[in-house]
Specification:
There is one protein chain. This protein has three helices and ten strands; from the N terminus they run H-E-E-H-H-E-E-E-E-E-E-E-E. It has 152 residues and is α+β, with helices and mostly antiparallel strands. It folds into two domains: 31 residues, no CATH class; 83 residues, OB fold (Dihydrolipoamide Acetyltransferase, E2P), CATH 2.40.50. The longest helix has 14 residues. The N and C termini lie far apart (52 Å).
Length: 152
């Protein structure tokens, strides 16, 4: 078995760069060599987690803005990624998206595609409803359990 020759100082510098810039991923390649450093996103509340009770005291305006996004992610209609891969909102370049916010969908309808290990996996609507918010951008990486969109 061949031993990998990894420059750990170089990897540490890339990790520092992620921290300084706020990026979540960086990939450097030279010839056949490739180094990819990924910072895990902050934990996301899943749909089955009960939200915490609101504080009894008034909350500062800045905190209200921060918590305003939580209800969408914690919505019972949140569709989460069943795998790690790259999400595609369009069936092919130049085509209309599978779904758009406000659109009504039927159970089983394709919402988007996640490419994993060169396989295109259709993510279908678990129930009928209206698309509320789409949390991901086209052609971006997604993690297992990451919220993709909400069906209201």
């Amino acid at each position: 078995m061949a031993k990998l020759n990894i420059d750990t100082d170089y990897v540490a510098k890339l990790a520092e760069l992620l921290q300084r810039t706020g990026l979540t991923e960086i990939e450097i390649s030279e010839g056949d060599a490739r180094v990819r450093v990924v910072k895990k996103p902050a934990p996301v509340y899943e749909a089955h987690v009960a939200p915490r009770a609101a504080p009894a005291l008034p909350v500062a305006a800045e905190s209200e803005v921060a918590t305003a996004a939580v209800p969408d992610v914690a919505h019972p209609g949140t569709v989460s990624s069943p795998m790690v891969g790259t999400v595609y909102l369009y069936p092919e370049p130049g085509a209309d998206p599978f779904v758009t916010p406000g659109q009504t969908v039927s159970e089983g309808q394709t919402l988007l595609i996640i490419e994993a290990m060169k396989v295109m996996n259709q993510i279908r609507a678990p129930r009928s409803g209206r698309i509320g918010r789409i949390f991901v951008d086209n052609a971006t990486p997604v993690e297992f359990g990451e919220p993709l969109l909400v069906i209201e």
